[in-house]
Automatic annotation (TrEMBL), chain A:
<dbReference type="GO" id="GO:0005886">
    <property type="term" value="C:plasma membrane"/>
</dbReference>
<keyword id="KW-0732">Signal</keyword>
<dbReference type="GO" id="GO:0055085">
    <property type="term" value="P:transmembrane transport"/>
</dbReference>
<feature type="transmembrane region" description="Helical">
    <location>
        <begin position="168"/>
        <end position="199"/>
    </location>
</feature>
<keyword id="KW-1133">Transmembrane helix</keyword>
<feature type="signal peptide">
    <location>
        <begin position="1"/>
        <end position="27"/>
    </location>
</feature>
<keyword id="KW-0813">Transport</keyword>
TrEMBL record, chains B, C:
<feature type="compositionally biased region" description="Low complexity">
    <location>
        <begin position="9"/>
        <end position="27"/>
    </location>
</feature>
<dbReference type="InterPro" id="IPR027417">
    <property type="entry name" value="P-loop_NTPase"/>
</dbReference>
<dbReference type="InterPro" id="IPR017871">
    <property type="entry name" value="ABC_transporter-like_CS"/>
</dbReference>
<feature type="region of interest" description="Disordered">
    <location>
        <begin position="1"/>
        <end position="27"/>
    </location>
</feature>
<dbReference type="GO" id="GO:0005524">
    <property type="term" value="F:ATP binding"/>
</dbReference>
<dbReference type="InterPro" id="IPR003439">
    <property type="entry name" value="ABC_transporter-like_ATP-bd"/>
</dbReference>
<comment type="similarity">
    <text>Belongs to the ABC transporter superfamily.</text>
</comment>
Automatic annotation (TrEMBL), chain D:
<feature type="transmembrane region" description="Helical">
    <location>
        <begin position="223"/>
        <end position="244"/>
    </location>
</feature>
<dbReference type="InterPro" id="IPR035906">
    <property type="entry name" value="MetI-like_sf"/>
</dbReference>
<feature type="domain" description="ABC transmembrane type-1">
    <location>
        <begin position="61"/>
        <end position="241"/>
    </location>
</feature>
<keyword id="KW-0813">Transport</keyword>
<dbReference type="Pfam" id="PF00528">
    <property type="entry name" value="BPD_transp_1"/>
</dbReference>
<keyword id="KW-1133">Transmembrane helix</keyword>
<keyword id="KW-0472">Membrane</keyword>
Amino acid sequence: MRTLAMRLRGAVVPLALLLLAEAGMRAAGTQSDALARPSEVALALGEALGDGSLLRASAQTLGAGGAGLLVGGGLGLAAGLWFGLSPLAGRLSALTVELLKPVPSVALIPIAMLLFGFGYRMEILVVAFTCFFPMLMLSQAAVAGVEPRLLEMGTVIGLTRRQRVWKIVLPAALPRILVGFRLAVGIALVVAVTVEIAANPYGLGYGLMIAQQSLRPDLMFAFLFWIGALGWGLNALMVALQRRCITPFNQGAAS
Amino acid sequence: MNAQVVPLGQQPRQASSPRRQAAGAGASKQIRFDRVCLDLGGRRIINDLDFVMEPGEFVCVVGPSGCGKTTLLRLLTGLVKPSTGAITRGGVEISGPSRDVAIVFQDYGKALLPWRTVAGNVSLALEAMAVPKEERAGRIADLLRKVGLASHAEKYPSQLSGGMQQRLQIARCLAQEPAVLLMDEPFGALDAMTRQGLQDEVAGLVEELGTTVLFITHDLDEAIYLGDRVIALRANPGRDSSSLAQSIAIDIARPRDQLATREEPEFLRLRRHLFDFIQEHHK
Amino acid sequence: MNAQVVPLGQQPRQASSPRRQAAGAGASKQIRFDRVCLDLGGRRIINDLDFVMEPGEFVCVVGPSGCGKTTLLRLLTGLVKPSTGAITRGGVEISGPSRDVAIVFQDYGKALLPWRTVAGNVSLALEAMAVPKEERAGRIADLLRKVGLASHAEKYPSQLSGGMQQRLQIARCLAQEPAVLLMDEPFGALDAMTRQGLQDEVAGLVEELGTTVLFITHDLDEAIYLGDRVIALRANPGRDSSSLAQSIAIDIARPRDQLATREEPEFLRLRRHLFDFIQEHHK
Amino acid sequence: MKDRNGLIASAGSVAVTLALLAAWSAVSAQRWISPVYLPSPAATWQALSEGLLQGELLALTLGTVERMCYGWLLASIIGVALGAAIGVSPMLRAWLQPMLELIRPLPASSVMPVAIALFGLSPGMVLSVIAFGALWPVLLATVHGFGAVEPRLEEVGRVLGLSRLQFIVKIGLPNALADAFGGVRLALTIALILAVVGEMLAAQQGLGTAILAAARSFRSADLFAGVALLGAIGFASNALLHLAERRMLAWRR
Amino acid sequence: QNKINLGYTAVTDFTAAFVAKEEGYFKKRGLDVDMQLLTITSAIPAALQSDSIQVGGTVPTVLLQAVDSGLDLVAFANASINDNTGKNPALLARTGSNIKSAQDLVGKKVGVPGVGGVMHVLIRRWIMEKGVDPKKVTYIETAFPQMSDLLKAGTIDAVATADPFSTRIEQAGTGAVVSYVGRDFPSGFSNVLYAANRGWAAQNPAQVQAFREALVEAIAFVEKEPQKTRAHIGKYIKLPAPVLETLPIPKMMADLAAPRLRFWAESMRQQGMLKNEPNLSAVIVK
Ligand SMILES: Nc1ncnc2c1ncn2[C@@H]1O[C@H](COP(=O)(O)OP(=O)(O)OP(=O)(O)O)[C@@H](O)[C@H]1O
Ligand SMILES: Nc1ncnc2c1ncn2[C@@H]1O[C@H](COP(=O)(O)OP(=O)(O)OP(=O)(O)O)[C@@H](O)[C@H]1O
Ligand SMILES: [Mg+2]
Ligand SMILES: [Mg+2]
């Protein structure tokens, strides 16, 4: 009962804002190629869901974004663990990482386009590049932040390096690695959509652009809303995963 | 039956306590501190420490809070390197932690894996030693029984009281079957009865296995009751005086008894002697 | 000069120790445990606890590890609520923490702000009480001197030894000038001399200020030396027997003395009595 | 001793970077990849120095830096404040978090058209979009930092009778600071990216427009010069932040 | 038979290709053409270069700049040409801005659909020919659908745009036409053309030829059957029906020769957009 009420409360603010927008636009009689009333957006959303185009576009975006996430996030995690575990490797790579990290993925799109043309490979490359660094930084920090006493203990009881990684470092760093992964999931979606907006002729970003160019602001906002909802769902999934992996007892290891 | 008050820097030439003869093969290595100094944060914490631990010897360390007892113990594990001087074991310089040196940390709360149960935490040591899976359960149950945690095997550390956490740490160290056991105020969080029980348990175990023990405590009675020798450290040694203020051999027969031993005149004499000495050096 | 062994559930009618008459105005509230039970994780930790603390009284709690001493203290702060029964102070049920109840936690490492210096940690309590800035420095220096940390004011907790961290926590509690002081094995990490010094310091302070004290220790000598009354808790009370195993009034004159008091026949008698009682109840 | 190790590590780190540069140089010299896509380091350096000394690259760079800094500052302040509020108040969490979670994954690039329609093509609009995008890591990390306060410290706060505000300022914030700093660092990177995207989409003069122009006309040396400048900006700002972090989190060492 | 991926953008300049596809003129000549709608013109050279598409509809400015930078692209057919009787492109000024001529644009902000794109180059040339320094005007990249809102908000003072957007801006009352810019230039220079990778064009001369022939046939159809043509357009450009009805169809011409590109080469050199003098005949394959 109470949790239901709590959930409903979360919906109050956005609903109020939507109603306000609807009322305001009706009152002002807004006529625009770039804006649409919430009610029109809702209709367009229903239509796009009904004809399957939205779901198809979602599958394309999620497929490319997911593959990019796996490649970039996986490599980032591996590198983060490596750099976190071996301070030498971490320090040697520091400058290169710091120099490459701020390179915006959008600046890469033209280069990736020339190399691969449009298509999944290009999108995966750009998404992977973008997911790589946050995952690397956060997992490196998570590993470096493991309670030193635990590592000392592990060394003293004679765990091998490998065992220390598996039995101490990873479980202790897991909560923060999951936070990083959650972030990376969000980034992957955002970048995948951006690549589609800027170049790739499929997926949600492409749909968004086409809707805009076809003078369908209602459909454009429907896509925008759907992207938000998708991100929200992914995040909820990640939170559930976090809950499963972190019991009340090992939570303390996160901090 | 006389307290050998050994002048600083000199060590007893011979193993005089019965325990030392009982030393097993695994412990047949002398530990030697050779003019060890250590600076931390620009301050001299330990100065000119020079002493020898015979294999199988049970050495207790006392001294005021902050005098460097924990630091001394960390030096022995190899977790901290001396600024000058060397620490050798069996003639070889200690370069880093080794499996046959076990340590019971003072801050027990931080040395346990919060995501493993009581049994899981003990298991960690067995896993480190590559004990086959099927053997582990039995040995874990055995160890937990020894420290009185048998009925808490499935709890997480955060569900244990302070004393129980410390006992868990001890169980894990015993699982290691170490040749050298370092204990940093291991019984500080225990009640009197549990403490006495564990004192005898540990004393018996190390005697049997010939383990060399360095035992930090702030309880003089405990130091005398357990030790073959008691070492007193000096706070703020500076650069002129050695950290080692005194080394007192305890010539009381083993096995010792919680009631009888503590009433022996030699025990009382040593206690008074140590007490006076420390009081004198305090402030 | 007789140990009043009070039957369970009954409390002394009158304040009989000199300290209780010295109770100041801030402490003029009786604390009453009224048939308190507590379950944690489906287990009965504390059962049917029923006793009264007079204003200004110094009550020591002893009992085996894991018997619920820390839990009892947490009940008094209001951090934990009893499953059944009630705890009142001055007739009002304790609903949550209040500033005039200070607590020294057992796990000192976790109770300090790691990002504040020693002085900053003490300052926290003064800030909570809205002490004007210009007054703080003087009071902090004063408190740090009392616990022997004057020369470490600018260090961070991670740079202190265990004992020093605990003394810092005590200083912060004293800064609160509490009417009720709850101490959970506060001297467990201290060396014998520092410990004795702080025992006398704390005893003197609370006597002067009329503070009511609940003091957990596993050292029977300490309990008798400090307390007006010693309470022994029973481990695993189940649902039939009360957690309160015994309540012993300590009728030894104050101020007490580390050497003289501990040699008094009454002290030794009480010590033996408590010891026997606890040994009997152990296991 | 420590300083010497640090020096060696820094030198090693520079060496690794130089080695990678050399590899790049070799690849472009061998013409394994056409210079249309991959210019040589020398060509990039030339484009860079010419652009900075003679062209308008310097002014564009400063424009981007300014935009990034303001957006980032805005994001950090709002993120920490909002994160603290949400981290402390379960009430606020219940009301706001679901909506924030819904807005968070919206790509800033797709929010831009809406922002343009609502606020016009002003610098203020670009700033608000940068702040919007860079806000999330700060917010998330701060909320997490508040949630991860050691339970014992929370009890200390309650026992000391700290007011809500005092608890936030004296315990919550310092405790969250370490986490928040991670978020703030990430926010800086994102702010830079969004400044560039903003320039590309909303026609504000800056490195973004320069890169876009280079990309459209396939001047790869100019493109790489722009990207290298972005890397340099990110590196320098991060280094400054690192310095600040080391000062503020001195207790960790 | 090889498949041809044809990349195009959502403008009616590609009407001939839509018709050729729909009426089977491609198929008749053995061409298997797939139509791929892209959102940005400037992505087309990269897509050609990487063989994501074999034929791309693009504008001369983009093509010339790509070639100038070393991409080996060629044009082989024309899509549309400038028509100095038409209404596209148009320069519209914000209502109340008092912009009546090129002189009035000094210090103002003009929205163009793509910086460096055809309209941008054209408007700068127009301003210059009116005797004004085009550098004294600020150009802001603005997507077509947003132009009306931005004019209204006062963010920009004028826009260079085309139908249906110019008509919609007029109808909404947010702006008024200053000049139909295309009318101030001669008819006949290429506005949109079909390009390919040089390698592909060299290997497939027959297909190039067939493609051109199909376009010629389609242009004849467009003139005969305007109603059917609109229906075909609706399939490839998704616009609301009323907008589609009024959409003007530009003048189309499949034949491509160097003179059709000379106007652009000149303008771009003037505006400093090309490093080298373009070799126009090498850019075109017959
Ligand atoms: N990381 C450090 N940096 C600077 N000084 C330190 C550090 N660690 C410990 N010290 C200092 O070293 C001294 C000895 O500390 P140590 O922990 O060895 O004391 P101890 O004898 O174990 O005390 P206790 O009985 O209270 O645990 C203390 O004065 C402490 O302040
Ligand atoms: N969060 C919890 N969940 C379940 N059981 C708990 C929890 N906290 C404490 N307990 C149990 O309550 C009992 C009493 O714990 P408490 O910490 O009060 O003991 P204690 O008397 O202070 O022991 P010690 O002297 O060792 O500190 C223990 O058996 C412990 O396992
Ligand atoms: Mg210590
Ligand atoms: Mg306890």
